[in-house]
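Predict both folds.
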Amino acid sequence: MAEKGNKIAKYRRPINLNIGMIIFAVIFIYVIICIFMYLSTEHVVGYEVKEGSLSYNNVYKGIALRTERIYNSTNAGYTNYYAREGERVAVGNLVYTIDETGKLSDYIRTSETGENSLSEHDLTELKTEIESFANGFDRTSFSDIYNFKYSVQGTVLKLANYNVLESAEALNGTANTALIDYFYASDSGIVLYSIDGMEHLTLQDMTMEYFDQKTYEKNYLLNNELVAAGDPVYKLSMDEDWSIVIPVEDEEFARQLMEEEYVKVRFMKNQNVSWGKVDYFVNAEGDTFVSLTFTNSMVSFCTDRFLDIELLLEDEKGLKIPNSAIVEKEFFIVPKEYVIQGGNSGDYGVLLETFNEDGNAVTEFVETTIYEETDTEYYLDDTVLRSGTYLVKPDSVDKYAVSRIGSLTGVYNINKGYADFKQIIVLYNNDEYSIVKSNTTYGLSVYDFIVLDASTVEDNDFVYE
């Protein structure tokens, strides 16, 4: 008898689900969902409010504008200056001579005029000039050395010429003076021996090209230099009123300075402080320039066209917050007499007119948050009230239709875990931060937490950082 073939069947182990595996699967799915939600949602970042002030780089390089007049020579010859640069000359004072033959220069070099030593006043002038250069020298502006060189050279030669002129007996009666022409000041002012083409500039002429010192040229009018008829020989700064023009970033900043009318300025060259009257101008290219006009100190800077100054603006101190946290929000404006304290908690609210099932008008006390107030009105939350609804005046039959809307500037406070609007009063701002008034009734306090980016939340949203 043939044996039946054995058929082997594969044993399938039954799925053994236990409570542990189920809990692990649920937790795993929950974690995946949380990670997905975290990566796909915009996060709310908090910012701690602190006291502070706005810091500015208020040091500017400006162009000095003065009432200047250039005087040209009527004769050809060698110039010899006798008025000292930076000093005031009156009408009729000797300024320079023109030596048509050049013999006076030879006479000055060869004549015996004693020791020709400098007086104490002369030495003090030279010492002051050297000390001023040493204290204000900037290694990045090497061209200032050449300016200093010409200035000292001119001062020494003028002092020497002045001493020669004082020795009148040595010059009188000599043939050398026959072809020497004397020129006297026809106006009063501060005498200067350089020209740069900016003598007639005004605020309305300003462009940014004038502030490029690489293209700036200053021509010195040197002693014993040969000039032709019509060449410039000196200039006068004729008015004590003068101004400094500086370029600023935008017109808004210029307007803020204009509102101050006068601004305190520190001159970096000698650290002196003065008040300048503010004006401003925007040219065709959109560049903004501020002019600061002074009524003193002109003589101290009469040889300088470019000056570094610091604007000593009063620092606005308060609560410092980022501009990204600031938002505008609308509110209903309600007369104060319609707002009362009531309810179980004694909070502020209004008597809202509603209708019962029978169609009869009744009043209901509704709590509402006050966000700002004036002498006669409150700004109330627009999430509780609706436009067109009526409020009833307490102990009266008078009604007020809710309709007026006003906007407030504020931030979202998140101390309580949700976005709560707080009104702010901005004192000052720049591109990144604002200084807001502290200790206001409905505003912020130091160490409050606010939403860094107001666009990431809505009013009363729960906040999870």
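Second protein follows, with its predicted structure tokens after the sequence.
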Amino acid sequence: MIERYTRPAMGNLFSLDNKYRIWMEIEVLACEAQAELGQIGITVEEASWIRAHAGFDPQHINELEASLNHDVIAFLTDLGQHIDAGLPVGTPKPSRWVHYGMTSSDLGDTALCCQLVQATDLILEGVRALAEAVKRRAFEFKDTLAVGRTHGIHAEPMTFGMKFASWAWALKRSQQRLLAARAAIATGAISGAVGSYSSIDPAVEGYICERLGLQPDPLSTQVVARDRHAQLACALAVAAATLEQMATEIRALQRTDTLEAEEPFKADQKGSSAMPHKRNPITAERICGMSRLVKANCQVALDNVALWHERDISHSSAERVAQSDSFIALDYMLDKMRWIIDGLVVYPERCLANLNATRGLIFSSKALLALIDCGLKREDAYAIIQGNSMAVWQDIQAAREGKCLCQRLLEDEQCPLDADKLAAIFDPAAFLAHVDVLFERLQGLGF
């Protein structure tokens, strides 16, 4: 991921330095486990020496890899040199016990799972922080009248707070998916060339995994199966799609024709190089664009599930890019979306003006039910309401003065509803009688 969208904490998790530190810890733990088991020649003293003297030089590793063309061997060579440095000539080299009975994937896959757990924890913190901001703003606008839209067309009255509330529940579901994916990916494998523990005791795997906060893979085939990684990538993609949904709604609400809300706009910010009046939803648009990356990378993870026989490395090159990019992008998106939500400017007066813009058409469903309650057949009641509604709509489209739907129904001889009943029908409160239930449910939602 380019530096522009990389936040330091997440970027550091996918740095070579962090990867090599985890690799080193796994190799040291393996030596300690072997010394404790006593099945091979390594002594407790040698394991202690390895722990005290283990180190690595990223630049030297890169130089070694340039000739060896194998990143793990380059790392192990450098690690061994650090461990053995300063020992008298002729002294047995403790580094000979490093990587004993292990294969490259034991090291790489277990370390990768550690990194992915670390990264998922950062994402979960971002989801929690955003969800709490969304929940707070939902209650802020709990009673702010607004028009609901279906197909982009005015439908029925609602409250603006319901928009935030729906996002809060979506973020809760993302949190649950991420937690499940975290449990699946928190897996290690130290099982040898084809996963049969041919040259290493399973107890070594258990020792390492326990200290790294992982669970041993019950049957790895040299690699940790990539359906686990795909589950995590899918959880990231759905979270990104949820942020895209939120950003898309904010962009639509900021349209000049609607203008019920705006993303924050700083005092010294510029909206356009050509048009000084512009205040564009650029951050929401950026979130929508970056969502495409995370969703596309999910397909990469799904394609990585199918490997030849017990293992190949067709997944490796792809996931080196896709995994880090997805995490870094989503981490950035969560931070920016929280900034938008915290500073989102809402215009209640414009919400009310938009609600009334269609001259009562949005109350048609209540009027329809009222006619049915009076004894009319649904088809007949529908015809009365639709006929009057289309007349109002034609006036609106022609931009001419005209009667509202309530007045037209009052004057329609086919409509048996009197002025008092119509007044009650055309009161937004009639649509919001049960909205409190939604916010009672939201009140109990924790993150």
